[in-house]
Amino acid sequence: MGAVGNVNDLLEGHVALDIECLDRLYLNGYVPILQCSGQVVRFMRDHLGLPVPSPAIFEQIGERFRSAVRDFAERNKIPLLHFKKGDRHIDVMRPYLDRATAPGVVAIGVSQEFQWVFTGNKRHTDTPGAVSYDFQKAERRVTCYYFYLVDAECGPGFIKICSYFPYQIKVWLNGHEWAKRQATRGGIAFTALANGFASCADPAALQAICDRLGPQQVQAFFDHWIATVPVPFTPADRAAGYWWELSLRQVEVSRTIVFDAPRRARGFFEALVADNLGTGRPDELKIIFGRRIQKNTPGEFATRVVTRGTLVTMNVFYKNSRLKQYLKEGRALRIESVINDPTDLGCQRRLRNLDELQKRARAANRRLLEVERVGQSCAVSTALLERVSLPTVEGGQRAPALRFGDPRVMALAASLCAVVHAALGFTNQSLCAWVSRPLGGLYTTAQCTYDLRRLRLKGLVRRLPHSNTYVLTPDGIRWAFFYTKLQDRLLGPLLAADQPPASVELRRALRVIDASVDQYIDAARMKPAA
Q: What is the largest CA-CA distance in the chain?
């Protein structure tokens, strides 16, 4: 490969491995029939048979659970570690996970954290001597236990259990670690790339393994370990339905593209970041995530670049979630959808929706790369530029010019950049709405019809048979991005280089040039005739 190429240069013929897989998976566990005060009263009175539902029961159950944890740790010789303020839990537990030689709980972390728990307050009654309580949820600082473990199927993970009613839990595991163990079991040779794969003897078989990871495997992981570690609920509680159900808290779905020539990867990635800082605009995100974004849509829509040491990460924020891109170990492009709220992608939170959420997140990863590929494929030939920017006659019909710099033409090009990945194409009406925005509404359907005609005659769009729907041609894609990038990223910044945000050095240099030119003009003038 020659000099640093763009995304298309690397992806066409220089990819050694391309794998899509669930990455980190963070789950909530809750008891569906212990979510309101009436259900708490029913648990104590109807299930436990207590005549007076009292908050003292919370403390009794909690103390029994805490004692069981201490006994479990002592009996199995498991370290019981107290996290300090500011500790990064995984860093504290990493030595214990790394030393593990067999599946099991390797260490238990103890932490004081704020959690939403049930509290009880005495309620006034008119009956003398009667005692009654109100129950409501409040945020309190309570003890939480982290059971860090190594699973035969999933590798490292943890289950966190709150020691106070209603005993919420968190579950964490890693999809790549699961896939590595399945590949080893299936006899598929591979080389690891930290949290991922660097190479594989049978990429298709490896991708098939990654595709299998879903709700059933995750539920099996949870069922095995929740039956192994101490829990606040008894077998009788579970038989009565007082048990946890899992929901999706944070899901990371990744695509890892490993290059066969990693020496060019860093320069390529830095160029990719610089060329896609506008990806976080709502019009781009609507294409990438396949979701409607309106003026009143809540959440953040932006692009941010974070640099930690030599690692550069580009984050594209969408509502409560984000897309993350970075260079993994200097040789692979990692794209991750970090879904913090499944409803951002139109999915429900229960674990059974994991397959659908993963499908939509993978599609977002693919569309992000497609947007970047199109954006870096905007070079136009001299013949195409002349055909577009000058009046021509196509098939006996006159095709007016699309002149660079004309406000209407530039708004048209920018709008076509936004609809380039519209799966079903675009119509006169939808394009008119897009172009009207940068022009302040001064764009009519008649003008749109005129523009569509000249775009069609110049081979930039084509109309789908038996419909009023248009799609961009390859020449149309290149033209739209070329005009838009030339204006927004080259001429615009250059023409404004004498004022902020241009650098002080550049502004000083321009002033020196202006002064020198003025002196040259003054010196060249002839004295007036006598």
A: 121
Rg (CA), the chain: 31
Using CA atoms, how far apart are residues 302 and 279, in angstroms rounded to an integer? 8
pLDDT category, 2, cuts 50, 70, 90? very low
Distance CA 382, CA 520 (A): 36
Amino acid at 155: G
Residue type, 164: Y
Query: Which residues, other chains included, contact 415 with Cβ-Cβ below 8 Å and sequence gap of 6+?
Result: 431, 434, 435, 437, 438
Q: List, as one string, the DSSP characters of 388-449.
A: HHS-EEETTEEE----TT-HHHHHHHHHHHHTTT-TT-B-HHHHHHHHHTTTTT---HHHHH
Beta bridge partners of 471: 462
Chain segment 456-490, per-residue pLDDT in tens: 999 999 998 888 889 888 788 888 888 887 777 66
Q: Strand 392-394 and strand 190-192: pairing?
A: unpaired
User: 445 near 466, Cβ under 8 Å?
Assistant: no
Torsion angle of the four alpha carbons 507, 508, 509, 514, in this order, in degrees rounded to the nearest 10: 90
Residue 187 confidence (pLDDT) above 80: yes
Check residues 273 and 162 and name the one with the higher pLDDT: 162
Residue 107 to residues 95, 148, 508, 525: CA-CA distances in angstroms?
A: 10, 5, 62, 87
Pairwise CA distance, residues 104 & 100, whole Å: 8
**DSSP label at 350?**
B
Can you list the pairs that 233-241 forms with residues at least 24 positions away whose Cβ atoms lie under 8 Å?
233/167, 237/47, 240/47, 241/33
Mean pLDDT check: name the lowest of 130-134, 189-193, 473-477. Answer: 130-134
Taking the C-alpha atoms of residue 497 and residue 480, their distance in angstroms, rounded to an integer, is 25
Under DSSP, the state recorded for 255 is: E
**Pair of tokens at residue 147:** 């059971």
- Residues 346-357 have pLDDT tens digits of 899 999 999 999
Lowest mean pLDDT among 134-138, 226-230, 477-481, 493-497: 493-497
Q: How far apart are CA 136 and CA 264, in angstroms?
A: 59
What's phi and psi for 13, nearest 5 deg?
Answer: 100, 0
Cα angle value 198/199/204 (rounded, 5°): 125
Q: Which 3 state secondary structure label does DSSP give 361?
A: helix
Location of structure tokens 């090009």: 413
| pLDDT mean over 506-516 | 74
Residue in this structure with the two tokens 């709700």, named with its chain if needed: 215
Provide the pLDDT for residue 264.
Answer: 62
Q: Which helix (H) or strand (E) holds 112?
A: strand 104-122
* Contact indicator for 281, 299 with CB cutoff of 8 Å: no
Exposure string of 165-188, with b = 16+ CB inside 10 Å and e = fewer, is bbbbbbbbbbbbbbbbbbbeeeeb
Say which range, 165-169, 248-252, 410-414, has the weakest mean pLDDT.
410-414
